[in-house]
Every structure is written in structure tokens, then in C-alpha cells.
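Figure 3 (text version): C-alpha cells given as input.
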């Protein structure tokens, strides 16, 4: 199946009408600008009708204009600057209720993730993590926060986690140089993709580790390096990196690990509860209730 928009245009060029060729020419030069336009807006700029734009999408092999638009967005997901994100987000929301709009977009990302994540890769990733001698997790910039969340729980459960959360090549490879085929490397990166993520995961792959990536699309540069690919949709055109779906997928990984290692993990957390109690880690809400009653 041909996935690249520009290749599809090239192959089907002779089938295009005069108006459709105008659309093709515009998209070849300005697909980054057209990616978030409606069919009507694109037709207006090119000088053709909305129906011509919709037919153009069908002629080059898409189910409709939304599928064509998605293809353009895939092409630019690694190119949007922060300024462009602000412009797109402002245009999307307009006068709509911000809370409803943003939360509905997040809900949509979770629904798409449910449909698109490979259950085989998910289960393979869980098994690899459970059986690993050591677990390495890479995540920088906004991805560092969900990587730290993941690492916190995995380290409580297994006690064998090394976090790689810097763009310093020296620091990362000093932490990673002992990695072997008995270990797991988890790389987390979303647009704009981290060059350091690719280099770090390549290093782990060359040394035989099972490499897992958590990213947003099959066109991510992390995919070709990975043994297990976990796709969780983010918003490529939001002012902030929308990582609700990736965090939900991490929650699912942790839950599945706990289910598979239930008895061992219950024993681990029983010991942790004792330590937390002895060290008075958590505040006693009962004492506060007593004060309120006085």
C-alpha cells in the first residue's frame, strides 16, 4: 500500500482533471500549510470547488478528504515549530469552549490509541520488561515526565531501572555501556523527535537489548530500531505536547505487569508499606478528622 502523499500524486497525475492538477501542484509545494485547512478553505486558495478537492482525495487513493488531510499532517509532524503550533491551536479552537475542546481532543487521542496499538507488541513489551535483568528508560524534554512516571513504578516493582533523561551523549552512554541482550531499552519520544533518542536506542540495539519504543506514529524514526512498537497518539499541533494517551498506555503496561507478577509484586508492596509506615511517609488522615471534630 502506498502511504506517501507525494508518491500517490505522482502515480495518479495523468488521471487528474485540470482543477485537480492545480490542487496537486499546490500540495506538492505547500502541504505544510494545507495540512490543517478544510476542504472548502483549500479549494478557495487553489481556485476550485470544495467538491473538486474531495474528488481529488478519492482519485489519488484516499477514502475521503479527512484521510488526505491526515496524510499531510503525518508529513509535517516533525516540522511544526512552537510558533506554528500556537497559530494552529488558536485557529482550531477559535471562539469554542477551551475546556471542552481540549478535553475532547484528548479523548479522541485515547480512542485512536485503543484502535491502533498493536496488542502483540504490547504483550511482547510486557514480557520483555518482566524478564529483563536491567531496564533502561530514555525520555527528554516533555517526554521526560512520563518516562520518570514509568520509571518510578517499574523501579518500585523490580528495582533495576536506569533513567536516561539528558541530551548529553557522554552521560547517556556512560549509563548505558553495560547494556546487554539480557536487558530492555525503552525509548519515549514524540514530535519533534529527539535525535538523542535515536542514537541511544541504536546503541542498545547493537548490543542485543530488546528495544521498545513509545511514540506516536509508524513514521517515527524510533520505529525501525525497535523490537516492540507502541503507538500512542499525541497532538502534533497543540501548543503543549499532549501526552494523555501515552500516559494511559504506560498505565496499561504497569497494570498488565502487576497482573502477570501478582504474588511477587504483592510481597514487594507489602514490604514497602511496612517501610512507609515505619518512616511515617504518608500523613494520617484520621488525625485530621479528629481535629475537625473538636
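Below: residues designed for each position.
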Amino acid at each position: 500500500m502506498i502511504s506517501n502523499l507525494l508518491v500517490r500524486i505522482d502515480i495518479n497525475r495523468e488521471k487528474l482533471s485540470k482543477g485537480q492538477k492545480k490542487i496537486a501542484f499546490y500540495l506538492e509545494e505547500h502541504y505544510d500549510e494545507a495540512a490543517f485547512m478544510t476542504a472548502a478553505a483549500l479549494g478557495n486558495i487553489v481556485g476550485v470547488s470544495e467538491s473538486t478537492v474531495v474528488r481529488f482525495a478519492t482519485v489519488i487513493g484516499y477514502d475521503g478528504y479527512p484521510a488526505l488531510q491526515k496524510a499531510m499532517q503525518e508529513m509535517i509532524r516533525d516540522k511544526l515549530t512552537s510558533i506554528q503550533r500556537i497559530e494552529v491551536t488558536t485557529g482550531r479552537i477559535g471562539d469554542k469552549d477551551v475546556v471542552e475542546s481540549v478535553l475532547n481532543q484528548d479523548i479522541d487521542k485515547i480512542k485512536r490509541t485503543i484502535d491502533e496499538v498493536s496488542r502483540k507488541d504490547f504483550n511482547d513489551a510486557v514480557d520483555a520488561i518482566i524478564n529483563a535483568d536491567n531496564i533502561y528508560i530514555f525520555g527528554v524534554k516533555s517526554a521526560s515526565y512520563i518516562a520518570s512516571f514509568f520509571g518510578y513504578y517499574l523501579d518500585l516493582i523490580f528495582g533495576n531501572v536506569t533513567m536516561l533523561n539528558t541530551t548529553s551523549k557522554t552521560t547517556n552512554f556512560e549509563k548505558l555501556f553495560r547494556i546487554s541482550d539480557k536487558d530492555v531499552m525503552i525509548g519515549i519520544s514524540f514530535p519533534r523527535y529527539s535525535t538523542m533518542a535515536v542514537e541511544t536506542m541504536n546503541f542498545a540495539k547493537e548490543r542485543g537489548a530488546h528495544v521498545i519504543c513509545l511514540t506516536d506514529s509508524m513514521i517515527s524514526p524510533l520505529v525501525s530500531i525497535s523490537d516492540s512498537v507502541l503507538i500512542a497518539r499525541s497532538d502534533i499541533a497543540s501548543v503543549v505536547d499532549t501526552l494523555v494517551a501515552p500516559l494511559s498506555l504506560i498505565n496499561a503496561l504497569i497494570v498488565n505487569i502487576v497482573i502477570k507478577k501478582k504474588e511477587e509484586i504483592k510481597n514487594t508492596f507489602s514490604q514497602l508499606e511496612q517501610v512507609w509506615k515505619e518512616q511515617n511517609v504518608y500523613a494520617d488522615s484520621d488525625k485530621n478528622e479528629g481535629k475537625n471534630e473538636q
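Residues 98-116 form the longest helix (19 residues).
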